[in-house]
Design a protein that fits this description.
about 260 residues, mainly alpha, MetI-like fold, 2 domains, 12 helices
Length: about 260
């Protein structure tokens, strides 16, 4: 390894450390301002809560053995909805790429489904699936599937267009073109779709829990709002943010492994 390359790697490492430090300082500053606004009377702690009140509420939930059942319920529903929606979405995108005629037929329907507010389907899903976790998982699946189909299909048709034409001139079959040219070129798009799908899955689950659940973070948010326990609402939102961040960074770590596999790092 040359000296210039080593210096370049050190510069990258210093940049990553600086970015991480600034992120931590920014979070600490925001939490400090949030706490100070309540203690100094700049904002009503009953309305905006505070980090100390959020921690106290989370500890009370833990001591009453209610914290982890709610967390696990929401996390399970989100993971199942995310994995199922991603798998179905990618498979549907592959099918539509192999069948241009089917893609042209279904394109307007995908656009309508993507624009449709999924919460409007909530009452119907409850009747079809039942008032339980199944309806919530289906809601998350619907929200993430359509986004995944459209994002991945767009990557297939745009990212691999030039390579696809080259493979055709070389006499490659449709399957060979997809496996050797289109799919590798679309990996970044697929990873981006996964990141979007993570957030959409959380949205679908929370919306579902608003409608039908008797357990979960969405249920705690609704219940806390109904009885004016806003500390409970804020604690649930903070826990939700932490879980969403963990799941997002898990997908980001998977993306790095895929990038190494395809030689992009």
């Amino acid at each position: 390894m040359s000296r210039e390359h080593m210096e370049y790697l050190k510069k990258l490492k210093r940049g990553r450390r600086l970015t991480a430090a600034v992120r931590i300082l920014l979070l600490a500053l925001l939490l400090g301002l949030w706490e100070a606004s309540g203690r100094l009377g700049l904002a009503d702690p009953f309305i905006v809560s505070s980090p100390s009140r959020v921690v106290s509420t989370a500890l009370r939930l833990y001591e009453s053995h209610d914290l982890f059942p709610h967390i696990l319920t929401t996390f399970y529903e989100t993971v199942v909805g995310f994995v199922s929606g991603t798998a179905i979405g990618v498979a549907a995108a592959v099918l539509l790429w192999f069948s241009p005629f089917l893609r042209r037929v279904l394109d307007p329907y995908l656009v309508v489904l993507n624009a449709l507010p999924k919460i409007a389907l909530g009452p119907i899903l409850i009747v079809w699936v039942g008032a339980g976790p199944g309806a919530i998982i289906v809601m998350a699946l619907l929200v993430s599937t359509v986004v995944t189909v459209m994002s991945v299909l767009s990557g297939f048709t745009e990212q691999g267009r030039e390579r696809e034409e080259l493979m055709r001139t070389l006499g490659a079959s449709r399957l060979q073109t997809f496996m050797k040219a289109v799919l590798p070129a679309s990996v970044p798009t697929i990873m981006s779709a996964l990141k979007i799908s993570v957030g959409m899955s959380w949205v679908g689950v929370i919306v579902g829990e608003y409608l039908v659940s008797k357990r979960g973070l969405g249920y705690l948010i609704v219940y806390g709002g109904q009885v004016f326990k806003l500390d409970l609402v804020m604690a649930s939102i903070v826990i939700l943010c932490v879980l969403a961040a963990i799941m997002y960074y898990a997908v980001a770590a998977f993306e790095k492994r895929i990038d190494k596999r395809f030689g992009r790092e």
